[in-house]
Amino acid sequence: MADEAKAKGNAAFSAGRYEEAARHFTDAIALAPGNHVLYSNRSAALASVHRYSEALADAEKTVELKPDWAKGYSRLGAAHLGLGDAASAVAAYEKGLALDPTNEGLKAGLADAKKAAAAPPRRPPPSGVDGIGQMFQGPELWTKIASDPTTRAYLEQPDFMQMLRDVQRNPSSLNMYLSDPRMMQVLGLMLNIKIQRPEASESSQPSSSPPSQPQEQPEAKAREVEPEPEPEPMEVTDEEKERKERKSSAQKEKEAGNAAYKKKDFETAIQHYTKAMELDDEDISYLTNRAAVYIEMGKYDECIKDCDKAVERGRELRADFKMISRALTRKGTALAKLAKTSKDYDIAIETFQKALTEHRNPDTLKKLNEAERAKKELEQQEYYDPKLADEEREKGNQLFKEQKYPDAVKHYTEAIRRNPKDPKVYSNRAACYTKLGAMPEGLKDAEKCIELDPTFSKGYTRKGAIQFFMKEYDKAMETYQAGLKHDPNNPELLDGVKRCIEQINKANRGDLTQEEIQERQNKAMQDPEIQNILTDPIMRQVLVDLQENPRASQEHLKNPGVMQKIQKLRVTGLLVVMASVLQLHGQTYVSIC
Question: Which InterPro entries does this UniProt record tie to the protein (predicted)?
Answer without folding.
Answer: STI1/HOP_DP (IPR041243), STI1_HS-bd (IPR006636), TPR-like_helical_dom_sf (IPR011990), TPR_2 (IPR013105), TPR_rpt (IPR019734)
